[in-house]
Design brief:
There is one protein chain. By secondary structure, this protein is an alpha/beta fold. The chain has one domain: Rossmann fold (3-Layer(aba) Sandwich), CATH 3.40.50.1010. It contains seven helices and five strands; from the N terminus they run E-H-H-E-H-H-E-H-H-H-E-E. It has a five-stranded parallel beta sheet with strand order 3-2-1-4-5, with helices on both faces. Helix 5 packs across helix 7. The longest helix is centred in the middle third of the chain and has 13 residues. It is globular.
Length: about 130
């Protein structure tokens, strides 16, 4: 199975954080699964590192290097994912969820037909069946 990690799930996995659920850890470590991180996550980390280095002390270069070391595959942003972003059911989630990075990650997982691992329960409001809350 192909899995796309939400940015925070990738960070928790790379850090071996106790915040990473048992289910997420098992899916990530299952040798039968291919684990992906998106260019969007690197962009999100770079943006947050530049604007709030106290909250995001490491930047995109370190994140990308750690992902490569962990064997995570890269998912580039495609034009099809950009179009899918526009077509997500934003009205259902807009009053609660406003993160464009998360929406783009959902769109990417939808286009690539990947399970999207996240801990953010509000992402279920998009009604996308590949969103997996862990």
């Amino acid at each position: 199975m192909d899995i796309l990690l939400d940015t925070h799930v990738a960070l928790w996995a790379l850090d071996d954080s106790p915040l990473l659920s048992k289910q997420a850890r098992e899916l990530i470590l299952d040798g039968g699964n291919r684990v992906f991180v998106s260019d969007v996550s690197a962009w999100e980390i770079a943006t947050k590192h530049v604007s709030h280095p106290d909250k995001m002390p490491s930047g995109a270069a370190r994140f990308i290097g750690l992902c490569r070391e962990a064997g995570y595959l890269n998912l580039p942003l495609s034009p099809e994912a950009v179009v899918a972003y526009e077509n997500l059911d934003i009205e259902r989630a807009a009053s609660v969820h406003k993160d464009p990075y998360d929406r783009m990650l959902i769109a990417q997982s939808k286009v690539a037909k990947m399970l999207f691992l996240t801990h953010d329960k509000t992402l279920s409001l998009y009604g996308e069946p590949l969103v997996c809350i862990v």
